[in-house]
Amino acid sequence: MNNTSITKSSTSISELSKTALVASLYVVVTVFLAVISFGAIQLRLSEMLNYLALYHKRYVIGVTVGVIIANLPHPLGS
User: Fold this and answer.
1) Which end of the chain is less enclosed by CB atoms within 10 A, N or C?
2) DSSP 24-59
């Protein structure tokens, strides 16, 4: 096995873990602050993670997955 293959593999694992970290951070912040995150007037502090997309495109996927997971238990799915 050559070094190039190992480097590409570790890079993709690193990118996947960073994306998963952003998604889990979004879910944790949204659920922890559920009192203000769900309701008629919503204040989602986790939306500040959207600005990570300015740094790298992979964070768009992380935030999108985080939004989907955070909205699953909510009855209105907002």
Assistant:
1) N
2) HHHHHHHHHTHHHHSSSS---GGGGGGGGGGT-THH
Q: Which H/E stretch holds residue 13?
A: helix 3-32
Domain locations in the chain as residue ranges:
19-78
Contact call for residues 31 and 45 (beta carbons, < 8 A): no
Q: What is the pLDDT of residue 73?
A: 79
pLDDT at position 2 is 60
CA dist., res. 38 & res. 56, Å (int): 28
**Number of alpha carbons in the 13 Å side-chain half-sphere of residue 68:** 8
Q: pLDDT means per 10 residues in the chain (78 residues)?
A: 63 88 93 84 87 89 92 70
